[in-house]
Specification:
- The complex is a heterodimer of chains A (334) and B (327).
- Chain A is an all-alpha fold and 334 residues long.
- Chain A folds into two domains: 223 residues, MetI-like fold (Orthogonal Bundle), CATH 1.10.3720; 56 residues, no CATH class.
- Chain A has 13 helices and two strands.
- In chain A, strands 1-2 form a two-stranded antiparallel sheet.
- Chain B is α/β, with parallel strands linked by helices.
- Chain B has a domain of 226 residues: 3-Layer(aba) Sandwich (Rossmann fold), CATH 3.40.50.300.
- Chain B is 30% helix and 24% strand.
- Chain B has an eight-stranded mixed beta sheet, with helices on both faces. A four-stranded antiparallel beta sheet of chain B has the order 2-1-4-5, covered by helices on one side.
- In chain B, α3 packs across α4 and α4 crosses α6.
- The radius of gyration of chain B is 21 Å and the shape is globular.
- Chain B starts with a strand and ends in an 11-residue tail after the last strand.
- At the A-B interface, α10 and α11 of A face α2, α3 and α6 of B.
Chain lengths: 334, 327
């Protein structure tokens, strides 16, 4: 490995364990494909929604639950309605200005690629918007879980002994709280807000993260290089953040990629129960929940969001598996 | 005044299975620039003696129960954790047994070698890098400018131990504690590493404490030797005196176990039995059950005391172990 790197560039360049893992990951086709698909889904939900002519919020009760591919002819006002979302007050002003200025085409025929929902809203636009909410919840909640869990677990594992005992008992107490009741309590106290979902999901996911990190650190803290770092007079914080955490990052990243789908499922579950995202906002969870109600009469209400959700979960899981294989030096074949 | 003067050090671990007295009344001293060996079997308390002085044993369950360890006139055992941290890695450094695990696999070698300078002398990366390169060059690593960017897994075992030496000597410590620095290396590399430690020691004028179970290594590099058994010092003497005139039965058994000193073709000598369980050790001579010579004469009711039998030659005064006449 070293010699190959040396001859290729003419001088010796260090190859870190990260680079090795990356090289192994690239050879795992399924994982690479999944990562690309994930990237595509994220682009679809963010950029795609900007390119879309339909607003996820504008209703049209004449066009309830039209099948995919249905064409609608819009006059100028409706077109502008869709362009300037009517949720925020300043959007309403911009809509009025644009209407006065004579902006937009007179009569256009646009296609509802995924059909419309029971309120006549474009399903594609709603799926994109729902995806944004779902991915954001997943991302933020996972980040919160990572931040708290890794720090907490590393400190507990490194300090060990009684401190570790107390810190882990606290984690167990929190774990023993029934999650749903916890969320219902929060929502009755603060109302259903999006940040509450981030908070409550993050608050339970960090517990598992802390346990995983703590177990890893427990073994690492007794390794000689940590002893060596202590014998060099390094302060504890530097040992934890510079020496220990980089060493547990492998399993942490793997677990994080597997946390994302778990969080998305949780959010979907909460939304399904009406505790999560509130209308008119949507998430994949609420869309699937609405679609499931009408599954027999209007199957396309379920099909689009469910397919996208499944593909995303599938890709996240396979990308996580691929990462685990790539990072785990013991199972590596070379 | 010696650089390091340990008097009557006592360390115990309070575990669920009882109190393990890992170090019992050990006294030793190290002069400036001297190389002092601590020899003994696994679990004889060699490492704990050194680790406890630097506050590196886990406390609890470990506890320092008595004694003093004056380093340059200041008692290490009375220092706060912050004061000890300022000494560790700057004035007293360590090298460990297994070079495969004593470097952080996720950090570039250069960053690790620089770390003591950055912590203790507050240098920034740009200031420390040339010094790290120079330090690697001094321990005989070729292309140090390029090697600093590599990771530990790209170094061989012997090379990693060289990196460890560079890292621990970069702050020019007055005392280097080498904990079995050659045990994990193969024989050809052992010699090179020992020579390197000697060479760096001479260049910087540091003192070295060499912890080992290999008497052959001791005879080669040390000026003074302390033999430990079951947490106690059984014999200590200048290296020539000890090899010429070993007085304690344990020292003699250790010497008989050196393969090179045994007749070719014969069965290699081993000391019978196992070191005693330090949690269950009662009073009396700890070596008595394994003493094949005169075990029946050993003290059973009280601990043997240390007597000075010749200038600089101290030994446990146990009738079964101590050979009084000319040996």
């Amino acid at each position: 490995m070293t010699t190959a790197a040396a001859t290729a560039s003419g001088e010796i360049q260090g190859r870190s364990l990260w680079q090795d893992a990356w090289a192994r990951l690239r050879r795992n086709r399924l994982a690479v494909v999944c990562i690309f698909v994930l990237g595509f889904v994220i682009l679809f939900c963010t950029v795609g929604s900007l390119l879309c002519n339909w607003s996820p919020h504008v209703t049209n009760l004449d066009l309830k639950a039209k099948p995919p591919g249905y064409e609608e002819t819009l006059d100028r006002e409706t077109w502008l309605r869709h362009k300037y979302d009517d949720l925020a007050p300043e959007e309403e002003q911009r809509f009025a200005q644009a209407l006065k200025a004579g902006e937009g085409p007179e009569n256009v025929t646009l296609r509802h690629w995924l059909g419309t929902d029971t309120l006549g809203r474009d399903l594609l636009a709603r799926t994109m918007q729902g995806g944004r909410v779902s991915l954001m919840v997943a991302g933020i909640a996972t980040a919160v879980a990572l931040l708290i869990g890794v720090t907490y677990g590393a400190v507990a594992g490194y300090l060990g002994g009684r401190t570790d005992d107390k810190m882990m008992r606290f984690v167990e107490i929190l774990r023993a709280l029934p999650f749903l009741i916890f969320v219902i309590l929060l929502t009755t106290m603060f109302g259903t807000r999006l940040w509450l979902i981030y908070l409550s999901i993050g608050a339970i996911e960090w517990l598992t993260m802390a346990r995983i990190v703590r177990t890893q650190v427990l073994g690492l803290a007794r390794q000689e290089f940590v002893e060596a770092a202590r014998s060099l007079g390094l302060p504890t914080s530097r040992i934890i953040f510079r020496h220990i955490i980089p060493n547990v990052l492998g399993p942490v990243i793997v677990y994080a990629t597997l946390t994302v789908p778990a969080v998305m499922l949780l959010e979907a579950g909460l939304s399904f129960l009406g505790l999560g995202v509130q209308p008119p906002q949507s998430s994949w969870g609420t869309l699937i929940s609405e679609g499931a109600d009408q599954m027999e009469t209007y199957p396309w209400l379920l099909a689009g969001p469910a397919a996208l959700f499944s593909i995303t979960l599938f890709c996240l899981n396979f990308a996580g598996d691929g990462l685990r294989d790539a990072m785990d030096v013991k199972t590596a074949k070379d | 005044m010696p650089l390091l003067d340990v008097q009557n050090l006592r360390v115990a671990f309070h575990t669920r299975n009882g109190v393990v007295r890992a170090v019992t009344g050990v006294s030793l001293s190290v002069e400036k620039g001297q190389t002092v060996g601590i020899v003994g079997e696994s679990g004889s308390g060699k490492s704990v003696t050194c680790y406890s002085m630097l506050g590196l044993i886990p406390m609890p369950p470990g506890r320092i129960e008595g004694g003093t360890a004056n380093f340059d006139g200041v008692d290490l055992l009375k220092m706060s954790r912050a004061e000890l941290r300022a000494i560790r890695g700057r004035r007293i450094s360590m090298i460990f047994q297994d070079p495969m695990t004593s470097l952080n696999p996720y950090m570039r070698v250069g960053d690790q070698v620089m770390e003591p300078l950055r912590i203790h002398e507050g240098l920034c990366k740009a200031e420390a890098l040339p010094k790290a390169i120079a330090a690697l060059a001094e321990v005989g690593i070729k292309n140090p400018e390029e090697r600093v960017r590599q990771y530990p897994h790209e170094f061989s075992g012997g090379m990693r131990q060289r990196v460890m030496i560079a890292m621990s000597m970069i702050t020019r410590p007055e005392l280097l504690i080498a904990d079995e620095p050659t045990t994990a290396l193969d024989v050809t590399i052992q010699k090179q590493v020992l020579d390197l430690i000697k060479e760096r020691q001479r260049a910087l004028g540091s003192a070295v404490i060499l912890i080992t179970h290999d008497l052959a290594v001791v005879s080669e590099v040390c000026d003074y030797v302390n033999v430990m058994y079951a947490g106690r010092l059984v014999e200590s003497a200048p290296v020539g005196e000890l090899f010429r005139n070993p007085r304690h039965a344990y020292t003699r058994s250790l010497m008989r176990s050196i393969p090179a000193l045994q007749p070719k073709g014969g069965t290699l000598y081993t000391i019978p039995g196992m070191p005693p369980d330090l949690a269950k050790l009662g009073p009396g001579c700890a070596f008595r059950v394994r003493n094949a010579e005169n075990g029946y004469l050993c003290l059973t009711d009280r601990d043997p005391e240390i007597i000075e039998i010749a200038p600089g030659h101290r030994v446990q005064n146990c009738p079964g172990c101590l050979e009084r006449g000319n040996a």
